[in-house]
Design a protein that fits this description.
Blueprint lengths: L3 E9 L10 E9 L53 E4 L5 E4 L13 E4 L6 E4 L6 E2 L22 E5 L4 E5 L1 H6 L5 H5 L7 H15 L5 E6 L6 E11 L5 E9 L6 H11 L4 E6 L4 E4 L1 H7 L12 H12 L4 E9 L2 E13 L6 E9 L1 H36 L7 H33 L7 E4 H11 L1 H6 L3 E5 L5 E4 L1 H18 L5 E9 L2 E7 L34 H11 L3 E6 L5 E7 L6
Parallel strand pairs: 19-21
Antiparallel strand pairs: 1-2, 3-4, 5-6, 6-7, 8-9, 8-12, 10-11, 11-12, 13-14, 13-17, 15-16, 16-17, 18-20, 21-22, 22-24, 23-24
Helix pairs in contact: 3-5, 7-8, 8-12, 9-11, 11-12
Enzyme class: transferase
Pfam family, one: HisKA
EC number: 2.7.13.3
Protein backbone atom coordinates (compact mmCIF):
# COMPACT_ATOMS: atom_id res chain seq x y z
CA UNK A 1 0.00 0.00 0.00
CA UNK A 2 1.53 3.26 -1.00
CA UNK A 3 0.89 6.44 0.88
CA UNK A 4 -0.38 9.49 -0.99
CA UNK A 5 1.37 12.82 -1.46
CA UNK A 6 -0.29 16.07 -2.47
CA UNK A 7 0.83 17.68 -5.68
CA UNK A 8 -0.24 20.43 -8.04
CA UNK A 9 -1.56 19.58 -11.50
CA UNK A 10 -2.29 22.04 -14.28
CA UNK A 11 -5.02 21.28 -16.78
CA UNK A 12 -6.31 23.23 -19.72
CA UNK A 13 -9.02 25.69 -18.78
CA UNK A 14 -12.52 25.19 -20.14
CA UNK A 15 -13.28 28.85 -19.71
CA UNK A 16 -13.72 30.18 -23.24
CA UNK A 17 -12.56 33.65 -22.15
CA UNK A 18 -9.11 32.33 -21.27
CA UNK A 19 -6.40 31.50 -23.74
CA UNK A 20 -6.63 27.84 -24.79
CA UNK A 21 -2.89 27.50 -24.18
CA UNK A 22 -3.05 28.78 -20.58
CA UNK A 23 -3.42 26.01 -18.00
CA UNK A 24 -5.43 26.15 -14.81
CA UNK A 25 -4.30 24.68 -11.53
CA UNK A 26 -5.59 21.52 -9.89
CA UNK A 27 -4.54 19.85 -6.64
CA UNK A 28 -4.48 16.05 -6.79
CA UNK A 29 -3.04 12.97 -5.10
CA UNK A 30 -0.52 10.55 -6.53
CA UNK A 31 0.43 7.15 -5.21
CA UNK A 32 3.86 7.26 -3.72
CA UNK A 33 4.41 3.58 -4.47
CA UNK A 34 5.16 4.46 -8.07
CA UNK A 35 7.09 7.31 -9.54
CA UNK A 36 4.82 7.52 -12.58
CA UNK A 37 1.12 7.63 -13.28
CA UNK A 38 -0.82 6.35 -16.23
CA UNK A 39 -2.43 8.98 -18.40
CA UNK A 40 -5.64 7.10 -18.06
CA UNK A 41 -5.50 7.23 -14.29
CA UNK A 42 -8.59 8.81 -12.78
CA UNK A 43 -6.45 11.35 -11.02
CA UNK A 44 -4.99 12.63 -14.27
CA UNK A 45 -8.03 14.84 -14.76
CA UNK A 46 -8.49 15.52 -18.40
CA UNK A 47 -9.78 18.95 -19.37
CA UNK A 48 -13.03 19.74 -17.72
CA UNK A 49 -15.71 22.28 -18.27
CA UNK A 50 -16.76 22.49 -14.66
CA UNK A 51 -18.38 25.76 -13.77
CA UNK A 52 -17.22 28.09 -11.01
CA UNK A 53 -19.62 26.59 -8.52
CA UNK A 54 -18.37 23.00 -8.89
CA UNK A 55 -17.73 21.00 -5.74
CA UNK A 56 -14.40 19.41 -4.88
CA UNK A 57 -14.59 15.60 -4.71
CA UNK A 58 -12.43 12.72 -5.87
CA UNK A 59 -10.32 13.71 -8.83
CA UNK A 60 -12.91 16.10 -10.16
CA UNK A 61 -11.57 19.64 -10.39
CA UNK A 62 -13.50 22.48 -8.79
CA UNK A 63 -13.23 26.11 -9.83
CA UNK A 64 -12.63 28.90 -7.33
CA UNK A 65 -13.23 32.50 -8.38
CA UNK A 66 -11.54 33.88 -11.43
CA UNK A 67 -8.44 31.75 -10.76
CA UNK A 68 -10.46 28.50 -11.21
CA UNK A 69 -8.36 26.77 -8.53
CA UNK A 70 -9.19 23.04 -8.23
CA UNK A 71 -8.60 20.85 -5.19
CA UNK A 72 -8.47 17.15 -4.51
CA UNK A 73 -7.96 16.14 -0.87
CA UNK A 74 -7.33 12.44 -0.40
CA UNK A 75 -5.00 10.20 1.55
CA UNK A 76 -2.42 10.89 4.20
CA UNK A 77 0.66 12.99 3.62
CA UNK A 78 3.80 11.02 2.93
CA UNK A 79 7.02 12.04 4.60
CA UNK A 80 9.13 14.34 2.44
CA UNK A 81 9.27 12.28 -0.78
CA UNK A 82 9.59 13.50 -4.33
CA UNK A 83 6.61 13.04 -6.58
CA UNK A 84 5.52 14.29 -10.00
CA UNK A 85 3.03 16.80 -11.18
CA UNK A 86 1.19 16.05 -14.41
CA UNK A 87 0.55 18.95 -16.72
CA UNK A 88 -2.20 18.51 -19.32
CA UNK A 89 -1.87 20.52 -22.52
CA UNK A 90 -4.42 21.10 -25.35
CA UNK A 91 -3.18 18.14 -27.48
CA UNK A 92 -4.21 15.75 -24.70
CA UNK A 93 -0.72 14.60 -23.78
CA UNK A 94 0.44 14.51 -20.17
CA UNK A 95 3.94 15.67 -19.17
CA UNK A 96 5.63 15.04 -15.86
CA UNK A 97 7.14 17.99 -13.99
CA UNK A 98 9.69 17.44 -11.21
CA UNK A 99 8.92 20.66 -9.29
CA UNK A 100 6.29 20.05 -6.67
CA UNK A 101 4.80 21.62 -3.56
CA UNK A 102 4.60 19.04 -0.75
CA UNK A 103 2.47 19.76 2.32
CA UNK A 104 3.13 17.98 5.60
CA UNK A 105 0.66 19.11 8.28
CA UNK A 106 -0.63 16.40 10.62
CA UNK A 107 -4.25 15.36 10.59
CA UNK A 108 -6.81 16.43 11.64
CA UNK A 109 -5.29 19.92 11.95
CA UNK A 110 -6.00 22.41 9.15
CA UNK A 111 -3.75 21.88 6.14
CA UNK A 112 -1.98 24.94 4.85
CA UNK A 113 -0.51 25.75 1.48
CA UNK A 114 0.28 28.67 -0.79
CA UNK A 115 -1.75 29.60 -3.83
CA UNK A 116 0.66 29.31 -6.76
CA UNK A 117 -0.92 32.25 -8.54
CA UNK A 118 -1.46 34.69 -5.68
CA UNK A 119 1.04 33.57 -3.00
CA UNK A 120 -1.72 34.03 -0.43
CA UNK A 121 -1.85 31.58 2.46
CA UNK A 122 -4.70 29.10 2.10
CA UNK A 123 -6.43 26.98 4.73
CA UNK A 124 -8.65 24.01 4.04
CA UNK A 125 -10.08 20.99 5.84
CA UNK A 126 -11.07 17.68 4.19
CA UNK A 127 -13.92 18.42 1.80
CA UNK A 128 -14.65 21.88 3.22
CA UNK A 129 -14.87 24.77 0.87
CA UNK A 130 -11.60 26.63 0.40
CA UNK A 131 -11.22 29.71 2.54
CA UNK A 132 -8.47 32.22 3.10
CA UNK A 133 -6.25 32.41 6.17
CA UNK A 134 -6.48 35.35 8.58
CA UNK A 135 -2.91 36.18 7.56
CA UNK A 136 -4.32 37.69 4.43
CA UNK A 137 -5.52 40.65 6.50
CA UNK A 138 -2.35 40.95 8.57
CA UNK A 139 0.24 43.64 7.91
CA UNK A 140 2.85 40.93 8.54
CA UNK A 141 3.38 38.57 5.64
CA UNK A 142 6.06 36.37 7.14
CA UNK A 143 6.08 32.73 6.06
CA UNK A 144 7.56 31.75 9.43
CA UNK A 145 4.22 32.53 11.04
CA UNK A 146 2.26 30.10 8.85
CA UNK A 147 2.90 27.06 11.01
CA UNK A 148 1.59 28.89 14.11
CA UNK A 149 -1.92 28.67 12.72
CA UNK A 150 -1.75 24.93 13.41
CA UNK A 151 -1.37 25.46 17.14
CA UNK A 152 -4.15 25.35 19.67
CA UNK A 153 -2.00 27.71 21.77
CA UNK A 154 -2.96 31.40 21.27
CA UNK A 155 -0.04 33.29 19.74
CA UNK A 156 0.02 36.90 18.63
CA UNK A 157 2.52 39.62 17.75
CA UNK A 158 2.27 43.06 19.31
CA UNK A 159 3.77 46.38 18.25
CA UNK A 160 4.78 47.94 21.61
CA UNK A 161 5.01 51.46 20.20
CA UNK A 162 1.60 51.47 18.51
CA UNK A 163 0.06 49.36 21.30
CA UNK A 164 -1.75 47.08 18.88
CA UNK A 165 -1.77 43.49 17.73
CA UNK A 166 -0.33 43.15 14.23
CA UNK A 167 -0.77 39.41 13.73
CA UNK A 168 -2.54 36.54 15.49
CA UNK A 169 -3.12 32.88 14.87
CA UNK A 170 -6.60 31.36 14.89
CA UNK A 171 -6.42 30.37 18.56
CA UNK A 172 -5.51 33.95 19.51
CA UNK A 173 -8.34 35.36 17.39
CA UNK A 174 -10.73 33.11 19.29
CA UNK A 175 -9.21 34.05 22.65
CA UNK A 176 -9.69 37.75 21.88
CA UNK A 177 -13.31 37.09 20.85
CA UNK A 178 -12.65 38.51 17.38
CA UNK A 179 -14.47 37.57 14.19
CA UNK A 180 -11.20 37.35 12.28
CA UNK A 181 -7.70 38.73 12.38
CA UNK A 182 -8.69 41.82 10.37
CA UNK A 183 -11.10 42.82 13.12
CA UNK A 184 -8.47 42.08 15.79
CA UNK A 185 -5.63 44.07 14.28
CA UNK A 186 -7.95 47.04 13.84
CA UNK A 187 -9.38 46.77 17.34
CA UNK A 188 -8.85 49.73 19.68
CA UNK A 189 -7.01 48.31 22.66
CA UNK A 190 -7.47 51.57 24.61
CA UNK A 191 -3.72 52.24 24.88
CA UNK A 192 -2.54 54.16 27.93
CA UNK A 193 0.94 55.45 28.80
CA UNK A 194 1.23 52.69 31.40
CA UNK A 195 0.34 49.91 28.96
CA UNK A 196 2.72 51.33 26.34
CA UNK A 197 5.50 51.55 28.95
CA UNK A 198 4.82 47.96 30.03
CA UNK A 199 5.08 46.63 26.48
CA UNK A 200 8.25 48.60 25.80
CA UNK A 201 9.83 47.28 29.00
CA UNK A 202 8.94 43.73 27.99
CA UNK A 203 10.52 44.34 24.60
CA UNK A 204 13.72 45.61 26.22
CA UNK A 205 13.92 42.51 28.39
CA UNK A 206 13.43 40.01 25.56
CA UNK A 207 15.91 41.87 23.32
CA UNK A 208 18.62 41.11 25.87
CA UNK A 209 17.89 37.40 25.44
CA UNK A 210 15.91 37.02 28.64
CA UNK A 211 13.11 34.44 28.53
CA UNK A 212 10.36 34.88 31.08
CA UNK A 213 6.64 34.65 31.65
CA UNK A 214 4.02 36.20 33.86
CA UNK A 215 0.34 35.99 34.66
CA UNK A 216 -1.70 38.85 33.29
CA UNK A 217 -5.28 39.79 32.57
CA UNK A 218 -6.53 40.68 29.09
CA UNK A 219 -9.92 42.15 28.31
CA UNK A 220 -11.37 40.82 25.04
CA UNK A 221 -14.56 42.82 24.45
CA UNK A 222 -14.59 43.88 28.08
CA UNK A 223 -14.42 40.36 29.50
CA UNK A 224 -11.55 39.68 31.93
CA UNK A 225 -9.49 36.63 30.94
CA UNK A 226 -6.55 35.54 33.07
CA UNK A 227 -3.65 34.08 31.06
CA UNK A 228 -0.08 33.02 31.56
CA UNK A 229 2.07 34.78 28.96
CA UNK A 230 5.56 34.10 27.71
CA UNK A 231 7.38 36.60 25.55
CA UNK A 232 9.92 36.43 22.74
CA UNK A 233 11.43 39.03 20.44
CA UNK A 234 10.08 39.24 16.89
CA UNK A 235 11.37 41.82 14.33
CA UNK A 236 8.71 43.94 12.67
CA UNK A 237 8.95 44.70 8.94
CA UNK A 238 10.28 48.24 9.53
CA UNK A 239 13.11 46.96 11.71
CA UNK A 240 11.62 47.84 15.09
CA UNK A 241 11.27 45.18 17.72
CA UNK A 242 7.96 43.46 18.25
CA UNK A 243 6.76 41.04 20.91
CA UNK A 244 5.68 37.50 20.13
CA UNK A 245 3.28 36.48 22.89
CA UNK A 246 2.25 32.94 23.76
CA UNK A 247 -0.76 32.88 26.07
CA UNK A 248 -2.14 29.96 28.03
CA UNK A 249 -5.59 30.64 29.54
CA UNK A 250 -5.68 29.85 33.24
CA UNK A 251 -8.58 27.53 33.83
CA UNK A 252 -8.03 27.00 37.55
CA UNK A 253 -10.01 29.05 40.03
CA UNK A 254 -8.22 32.13 41.34
CA UNK A 255 -8.95 34.63 44.08
CA UNK A 256 -10.51 37.76 42.51
CA UNK A 257 -9.20 39.91 45.36
CA UNK A 258 -5.64 38.80 44.68
CA UNK A 259 -5.97 39.48 40.95
CA UNK A 260 -7.48 42.93 41.50
CA UNK A 261 -4.76 43.84 43.98
CA UNK A 262 -2.02 42.69 41.61
CA UNK A 263 -3.48 44.67 38.70
CA UNK A 264 -3.90 47.77 40.86
CA UNK A 265 -0.25 47.66 41.93
CA UNK A 266 0.98 46.91 38.42
CA UNK A 267 -0.66 49.98 36.89
CA UNK A 268 -0.59 52.36 39.87
CA UNK A 269 0.96 55.82 39.25
CA UNK A 270 3.38 55.00 42.05
CA UNK A 271 6.72 53.20 42.16
CA UNK A 272 6.19 49.89 44.00
CA UNK A 273 8.97 47.32 44.41
CA UNK A 274 9.91 44.44 46.67
CA UNK A 275 13.49 43.48 47.54
CA UNK A 276 15.40 40.83 49.41
CA UNK A 277 17.27 41.92 52.53
CA UNK A 278 20.42 42.43 50.46
CA UNK A 279 18.54 44.94 48.32
CA UNK A 280 18.28 42.77 45.20
CA UNK A 281 15.08 43.23 43.21
CA UNK A 282 12.29 40.69 43.56
CA UNK A 283 9.38 42.45 41.87
CA UNK A 284 8.68 45.87 40.34
CA UNK A 285 5.59 47.41 38.82
CA UNK A 286 5.46 49.18 35.47
CA UNK A 287 6.30 52.67 36.73
CA UNK A 288 9.24 51.35 38.74
CA UNK A 289 10.81 49.78 35.66
CA UNK A 290 10.12 52.93 33.64
CA UNK A 291 11.80 55.02 36.31
CA UNK A 292 14.80 52.89 37.25
CA UNK A 293 15.18 50.39 34.40
CA UNK A 294 14.73 46.64 34.34
CA UNK A 295 17.55 45.74 36.72
CA UNK A 296 18.31 47.73 39.87
CA UNK A 297 18.83 47.26 43.58
CA UNK A 298 17.33 49.20 46.46
CA UNK A 299 20.64 50.77 47.54
CA UNK A 300 21.57 51.44 43.90
CA UNK A 301 18.79 53.93 43.26
CA UNK A 302 20.23 56.48 45.72
CA UNK A 303 22.32 59.28 44.24
CA UNK A 304 24.76 58.91 47.16
CA UNK A 305 25.91 55.28 47.45
CA UNK A 306 26.81 55.74 51.13
CA UNK A 307 23.29 56.92 51.86
CA UNK A 308 21.84 53.94 50.00
CA UNK A 309 23.90 51.52 52.06
CA UNK A 310 22.88 53.27 55.28
CA UNK A 311 19.16 53.19 54.43
CA UNK A 312 19.35 49.52 53.37
CA UNK A 313 20.99 48.55 56.66
CA UNK A 314 18.41 50.61 58.54
CA UNK A 315 15.43 48.87 56.90
CA UNK A 316 17.03 45.42 56.94
CA UNK A 317 17.42 45.91 60.67
CA UNK A 318 13.66 46.10 61.03
CA UNK A 319 13.16 49.87 61.00
CA UNK A 320 10.95 51.71 58.48
CA UNK A 321 12.29 54.60 56.42
CA UNK A 322 10.36 57.67 55.21
CA UNK A 323 12.30 60.51 53.62
CA UNK A 324 12.71 62.72 50.53
CA UNK A 325 15.96 61.69 48.83
CA UNK A 326 17.83 62.20 45.58
CA UNK A 327 17.69 59.13 43.35
CA UNK A 328 19.20 58.20 39.99
CA UNK A 329 16.55 57.53 37.34
CA UNK A 330 16.64 56.78 33.64
CA UNK A 331 16.11 60.53 33.09
CA UNK A 332 18.82 61.70 35.49
CA UNK A 333 18.83 62.72 39.15
CA UNK A 334 15.41 63.37 40.65
CA UNK A 335 13.89 63.91 44.08
CA UNK A 336 11.63 61.12 45.35
CA UNK A 337 9.66 60.64 48.51
CA UNK A 338 10.68 57.09 49.48
CA UNK A 339 8.89 54.85 51.98
CA UNK A 340 10.53 51.51 52.78
CA UNK A 341 9.44 48.99 55.39
CA UNK A 342 10.40 45.40 56.26
CA UNK A 343 7.86 42.72 55.28
CA UNK A 344 7.99 38.94 54.74
CA UNK A 345 8.19 37.81 51.14
CA UNK A 346 4.73 36.56 50.10
CA UNK A 347 6.20 33.61 48.18
CA UNK A 348 9.08 32.34 50.31
CA UNK A 349 8.21 33.79 53.69
CA UNK A 350 11.75 35.15 54.05
CA UNK A 351 12.30 38.72 55.32
CA UNK A 352 12.09 41.31 52.56
CA UNK A 353 11.60 45.02 51.91
CA UNK A 354 8.57 46.77 50.43
CA UNK A 355 9.30 50.13 48.79
CA UNK A 356 6.87 52.74 47.53
CA UNK A 357 8.00 56.05 46.10
CA UNK A 358 6.75 58.98 44.07
CA UNK A 359 8.45 61.80 42.23
CA UNK A 360 8.66 65.00 44.28
CA UNK A 361 10.98 66.91 41.96
CA UNK A 362 8.39 69.40 40.72
CA UNK A 363 7.17 70.21 44.22
CA UNK A 364 10.68 70.58 45.64
CA UNK A 365 11.78 72.77 42.74
CA UNK A 366 8.69 74.93 43.21
CA UNK A 367 9.47 75.31 46.90
CA UNK A 368 13.06 76.21 46.09
CA UNK A 369 11.91 78.71 43.48
CA UNK A 370 9.63 80.29 46.06
CA UNK A 371 12.47 80.48 48.58
CA UNK A 372 14.79 81.91 45.93
CA UNK A 373 12.18 84.49 44.99
CA UNK A 374 11.78 85.63 48.57
CA UNK A 375 15.55 85.73 49.07
CA UNK A 376 16.36 87.52 45.82
CA UNK A 377 13.50 90.00 45.93
CA UNK A 378 14.09 90.88 49.56
CA UNK A 379 17.78 91.49 48.82
CA UNK A 380 17.11 93.44 45.64
CA UNK A 381 14.40 95.49 47.35
CA UNK A 382 16.38 96.17 50.49
CA UNK A 383 19.44 97.61 48.74
CA UNK A 384 17.73 100.37 46.70
CA UNK A 385 15.24 101.13 49.46
CA UNK A 386 18.11 101.66 51.89
CA UNK A 387 19.78 104.05 49.45
CA UNK A 388 16.54 105.94 48.80
CA UNK A 389 15.74 106.20 52.49
CA UNK A 390 19.27 107.44 53.27
CA UNK A 391 19.37 110.06 50.54
CA UNK A 392 15.94 111.48 51.32
CA UNK A 393 16.72 111.44 55.04
CA UNK A 394 19.85 113.49 54.53
CA UNK A 395 17.96 116.07 52.50
CA UNK A 396 14.97 116.24 54.86
CA UNK A 397 17.21 116.29 57.95
CA UNK A 398 19.10 119.28 56.67
CA UNK A 399 22.42 117.51 56.53
CA UNK A 400 22.90 118.70 52.98
CA UNK A 401 22.25 122.25 54.19
CA UNK A 402 21.79 124.75 51.47
CA UNK A 403 24.38 123.16 49.17
CA UNK A 404 22.57 122.72 45.85
CA UNK A 405 25.26 120.42 44.48
CA UNK A 406 25.02 118.02 47.45
CA UNK A 407 21.25 118.09 47.37
CA UNK A 408 21.28 117.28 43.64
CA UNK A 409 23.70 114.40 44.19
CA UNK A 410 21.51 112.87 46.91
CA UNK A 411 18.37 113.26 44.82
CA UNK A 412 20.14 111.69 41.84
CA UNK A 413 21.06 108.71 44.04
CA UNK A 414 17.44 108.35 45.10
CA UNK A 415 16.27 108.61 41.48
CA UNK A 416 18.68 105.92 40.26
CA UNK A 417 17.52 103.51 42.96
CA UNK A 418 13.89 104.21 42.14
CA UNK A 419 14.68 103.22 38.55
CA UNK A 420 16.37 100.10 39.86
CA UNK A 421 13.21 99.22 41.76
CA UNK A 422 11.19 99.86 38.65
CA UNK A 423 13.32 97.42 36.63
CA UNK A 424 12.88 94.80 39.35
CA UNK A 425 9.11 95.17 39.25
CA UNK A 426 9.14 95.07 35.44
CA UNK A 427 11.20 91.85 35.47
CA UNK A 428 8.84 90.19 37.91
CA UNK A 429 5.84 91.18 35.80
CA UNK A 430 7.56 89.93 32.63
CA UNK A 431 8.28 86.57 34.26
CA UNK A 432 4.66 86.18 35.26
CA UNK A 433 3.45 87.12 31.76
CA UNK A 434 5.97 84.86 30.04
CA UNK A 435 4.98 81.94 32.24
CA UNK A 436 1.33 82.57 31.41
CA UNK A 437 2.06 83.03 27.69
CA UNK A 438 0.36 86.41 27.71
CA UNK A 439 3.16 88.37 26.03
CA UNK A 440 2.81 88.95 22.29
CA UNK A 441 5.43 90.35 19.95
CA UNK A 442 4.93 93.70 18.23
CA UNK A 443 6.96 93.09 15.08
CA UNK A 444 8.24 95.95 12.95
CA UNK A 445 10.86 96.63 10.27
CA UNK A 446 13.82 98.31 11.97
CA UNK A 447 17.58 98.75 11.57
CA UNK A 448 19.40 96.40 13.94
CA UNK A 449 22.08 99.04 14.54
CA UNK A 450 19.49 101.46 15.97
CA UNK A 451 18.16 98.82 18.38
CA UNK A 452 21.62 97.84 19.68
CA UNK A 453 22.94 101.38 19.88
CA UNK A 454 19.86 102.46 21.85
CA UNK A 455 20.57 99.78 24.46
CA UNK A 456 24.24 100.84 24.72
CA UNK A 457 23.24 104.46 25.33
CA UNK A 458 20.78 103.48 28.05
CA UNK A 459 23.53 101.64 29.93
CA UNK A 460 26.21 104.27 29.37
CA UNK A 461 25.82 105.82 32.89
CA UNK A 462 26.27 102.41 34.58
CA UNK A 463 29.38 101.75 32.45
CA UNK A 464 30.87 105.16 33.27
CA UNK A 465 30.30 104.55 36.98
CA UNK A 466 32.68 101.55 36.78
CA UNK A 467 34.96 103.22 34.23
CA UNK A 468 34.10 100.51 31.74
CA UNK A 469 34.39 101.24 28.04
CA UNK A 470 31.68 99.78 25.79
CA UNK A 471 32.95 99.18 22.25
CA UNK A 472 30.40 98.52 19.51
CA UNK A 473 30.85 96.92 16.12
CA UNK A 474 27.41 97.00 14.57
CA UNK A 475 27.22 97.79 10.84
CA UNK A 476 24.45 100.12 9.79
CA UNK A 477 21.88 99.05 7.24
CA UNK A 478 20.92 95.65 8.68
CA UNK A 479 17.13 95.59 8.27
CA UNK A 480 15.32 93.13 10.54
CA UNK A 481 11.69 92.34 11.25
CA UNK A 482 11.50 91.95 15.03
CA UNK A 483 9.94 93.43 18.16
CA UNK A 484 12.45 96.27 18.68
CA UNK A 485 11.53 96.88 22.34
CA UNK A 486 11.97 93.20 23.27
CA UNK A 487 15.22 92.78 21.31
CA UNK A 488 16.57 95.91 23.01
CA UNK A 489 15.58 94.34 26.34
CA UNK A 490 17.69 91.28 25.47
CA UNK A 491 20.72 93.44 24.66
CA UNK A 492 20.18 95.45 27.88
CA UNK A 493 20.18 92.24 29.93
CA UNK A 494 23.41 91.13 28.23
CA UNK A 495 25.01 94.52 28.91
CA UNK A 496 23.84 94.52 32.53
CA UNK A 497 25.33 91.07 33.03
CA UNK A 498 28.63 92.03 31.36
CA UNK A 499 29.09 95.31 33.26
CA UNK A 500 28.23 93.73 36.63
CA UNK A 501 30.81 90.96 36.20
CA UNK A 502 33.61 92.99 34.58
CA UNK A 503 36.31 94.57 36.77
CA UNK A 504 36.56 98.34 36.79
CA UNK A 505 38.46 99.80 33.86
CA UNK A 506 37.83 96.84 31.54
CA UNK A 507 36.22 96.76 28.07
CA UNK A 508 32.84 95.31 27.10
CA UNK A 509 32.46 94.58 23.40
CA UNK A 510 29.18 94.51 21.46
CA UNK A 511 29.30 92.96 18.01
CA UNK A 512 26.57 92.20 15.44
CA UNK A 513 26.81 90.54 12.04
CA UNK A 514 24.74 88.84 9.40
CA UNK A 515 24.73 85.03 9.23
CA UNK A 516 23.16 82.56 6.83
CA UNK A 517 20.14 82.06 9.09
CA UNK A 518 19.62 85.78 9.87
CA UNK A 519 21.76 87.77 12.29
CA UNK A 520 23.86 87.30 15.43
CA UNK A 521 24.53 89.71 18.31
CA UNK A 522 27.34 89.14 20.82
CA UNK A 523 28.22 90.88 24.10
CA UNK A 524 31.62 89.92 25.54
CA UNK A 525 33.10 90.81 28.94
CA UNK A 526 36.39 90.27 30.78
CA UNK A 527 34.85 88.90 33.96
CA UNK A 528 35.45 85.52 35.65
CA UNK A 529 33.43 83.54 33.12
CA UNK A 530 30.68 81.06 33.87
CA UNK A 531 31.50 78.55 36.65
CA UNK A 532 31.33 74.91 35.63
CA UNK A 533 28.72 74.07 38.27
CA UNK A 534 26.46 76.90 37.08
CA UNK A 535 26.41 76.16 33.33
CA UNK A 536 23.38 73.86 33.33
CA UNK A 537 21.12 76.33 35.13
CA UNK A 538 22.37 79.72 33.98
CA UNK A 539 19.18 80.45 32.00
CA UNK A 540 16.75 79.34 34.71
CA UNK A 541 14.64 81.71 36.76
CA UNK A 542 16.29 83.22 39.86
CA UNK A 543 19.58 81.49 39.03
CA UNK A 544 22.66 83.01 40.67
CA UNK A 545 26.22 81.77 40.44
CA UNK A 546 26.52 83.00 44.02
CA UNK A 547 23.12 82.70 45.68
CA UNK A 548 24.37 83.42 49.18
CA UNK A 549 23.15 86.39 51.20
CA UNK A 550 26.69 87.80 51.15
CA UNK A 551 27.13 87.82 47.38
CA UNK A 552 29.01 90.82 46.09
CA UNK A 553 27.14 91.13 42.79
CA UNK A 554 23.47 91.96 42.84
CA UNK A 555 20.74 90.89 40.47
CA UNK A 556 17.54 88.91 40.51
CA UNK A 557 18.70 86.07 38.29
CA UNK A 558 15.83 86.85 35.92
CA UNK A 559 17.58 88.77 33.15
CA UNK A 560 19.02 85.83 31.20
CA UNK A 561 15.84 83.80 31.66
CA UNK A 562 13.78 86.65 30.20
CA UNK A 563 16.30 87.15 27.39
CA UNK A 564 16.19 83.49 26.41
CA UNK A 565 12.40 83.41 26.38
CA UNK A 566 12.22 86.48 24.14
CA UNK A 567 14.76 85.06 21.69
CA UNK A 568 12.91 81.74 21.49
CA UNK A 569 9.66 83.62 20.83
CA UNK A 570 11.40 85.14 17.80
CA UNK A 571 12.38 81.69 16.54
CA UNK A 572 16.03 82.07 17.55
CA UNK A 573 18.48 80.60 20.00
CA UNK A 574 20.65 81.98 22.79
CA UNK A 575 23.87 80.76 24.38
CA UNK A 576 27.27 81.65 25.71
CA UNK A 577 30.95 80.82 25.21
CA UNK A 578 33.78 81.25 27.69
CA UNK A 579 36.40 83.53 26.17
CA UNK A 580 39.90 82.25 25.45
CA UNK A 581 41.44 85.16 27.35
CA UNK A 582 38.89 85.01 30.17
CA UNK A 583 35.40 86.34 30.54
CA UNK A 584 32.35 85.15 28.63
CA UNK A 585 30.61 85.97 25.36
CA UNK A 586 26.79 85.82 25.40
CA UNK A 587 25.08 85.72 22.03
CA UNK A 588 21.73 85.27 20.34
CA UNK A 589 20.88 84.31 16.77
CA UNK A 590 17.55 84.65 15.03
CA UNK A 591 16.04 84.95 11.58
CA UNK A 592 16.01 88.40 10.04
CA UNK A 593 12.24 88.13 9.70
CA UNK A 594 10.65 86.74 12.84
CA UNK A 595 7.09 85.42 12.93
CA UNK A 596 4.79 85.98 15.86
Amino acid sequence: MGRSAYFLTSVASANPRRSPNRPRTTVGASSSSSSSSSPSSPSSSSPSSSGEGSSCSGARPCAFGSRRLSIVLTGVLAPRRSTTARVGVPDGRVHRHPRVVVFTPPRPRPRLGWSVASRRPLAFRGGDRLRESPMRFSPLADSRLEILNLLDLPVWITDPDAVRIVWANRAAVALWRAEDVRELVNRDLAPSPTIRATLQQLRERVQTGERFGSERTIYPKGEAVRVHMSFKAFPLPDGRGGLLVEATPIRDAFDPEVVRAAEAVRYAPLVVTTHALDGSLLQANTLARTTFGNAFSFAGIFAEPAEGARVLAHVAGGEPFFEDVEVVTTEGTRWFSVAARPIPDAVTGKPGILVSAHDMTARIEAERAKDDLVSVVSHELRTPLTAIRGAIGLVVGGVAGKDPALQAELLQMASENVQRLGRLVDDLLDVRKLAAGSISLKLANVDLADVVQGAVELYAPAARAKEIVVETDVPAGMPVFVDPQRIQQVVLNFLSNAIKHSPAGEVVRVHARSIAEGFRVEVGDRGPGVPEAFRDKIFRRFSQADASSTRSIGGTGLGLYIAKTIVVMHGGRLGYENGKAGGAVFFFEMPARATD
